């Protein structure tokens, strides 16, 4: 189980690094816009991301 968790974390790092590598200017602008969102909006985005990821995992499994 620990090996799969490590693999999953490594894949997250790879995926997180794609946008800053490919288009750093647009990525920076998106981060600036994210800092202007309220805590509620950020929480809702996080919840939506978690639910989408869970749904995709369930669908693939």
UniProtKB/TrEMBL annotation:
Keyword Transmembrane: yes
Pfam families: DUF2065
The entry's keywords: Membrane, Transmembrane, Transmembrane helix
Key word Glycosyltransferase present: no
InterPro entries, per the entry: DUF2065
Bilayer-crossing regions: 6-23, 44-60
Name listed for the protein in its UniProt record: DUF2065 family protein
Organism (species): Pseudomonas xionganensis
């Amino acid at each position: 189980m620990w090996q799969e968790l490590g693999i999953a974390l490594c894949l997250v790092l790879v995926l997180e690094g794609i946008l800053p590598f490919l288009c750093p200017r647009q990525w920076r602008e998106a981060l600036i816009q994210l800092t202007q969102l309220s805590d509620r909006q950020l929480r809702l985005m996080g919840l939506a991301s978690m639910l989408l990821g869970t749904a995709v995992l369930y669908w693939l499994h």
